[in-house]
Amino acid sequence: MLTWLEYALACTQKSTVFYANIYAVNLAEDDAGFKNSFAQADLVFCDGQGLRLGAALLGRPLPERFTPPDWIHRLAASCATHGYGIFLLGGEPGVATTAAARLIERHPGLRVASHHGYLSPDPLVEAAALEAIAAFQPALLLVGMGMPTQERWVTARRTDLAVPVVMTVGALFDYLAETVPRGPRWLTDHGFEWLCRLWYEPRRLWRRYLLGIPRFFGLMLRQKITPRG
């Protein structure tokens, strides 16, 4: 994954990178536009052990799970070495700024800029964000607005973004800024990151996990019994 990103950054050709998990599959089942956004991406990577289990159930095993919080610092170190700027777009006001500061603190010399992710309903706010991105001229734009907002925004604005690599990252900025705690590695590395997130944000996420996980595996079973291609 990191090798692919480093190659894409070096080529400077436009690449769009999305991550997929159980929630993404459920959203795609209900939203054709969201599903089409994924079809337009240059790379979609697995960010969830549940998705790996579902793929294995269908006889299409995925080699491993990648999740941005696990490798963001390796990517940042590579960007610092090669002089690639990173722009963080997303989160509540102040979160991306703090996340950027944490990256700079850990990777001296890294060029990082940021803007919050509350771009609507005021078009002037979005225009200001686009101007900030254009002025900074990053090699990598990380978009953390949560699904499905981030995918819709990237798909709608990709032609306006003169950025080699645009990648969605979900709650990454919250983890970097430590506004939302991440679970212990012995849980997150063994398929229970969803449980940690549910514990910390039950009101916001209970439907996604308590209803979404059974629904996903129901979809996988249906696909196994009656393949749709």
TrEMBL record:
Molecular function as annotated in GO: hexosyltransferase activity
Top-level taxon of origin: Bacteria
Keywords, ordered alphabetically: Glycosyltransferase, Transferase
Database matches in InterPro entries: WecG_TagA_CpsF (IPR004629)
PANTHER family xrefs: PTHR34136, UDP-N-ACETYL-D-MANNOSAMINURONIC ACID TRANSFERASE
Name listed for the protein in its UniProt record: Glycosyl transferase
Taxonomic lineage from the root: Bacteria, Bacillati, Chloroflexota, Chloroflexia, Chloroflexales
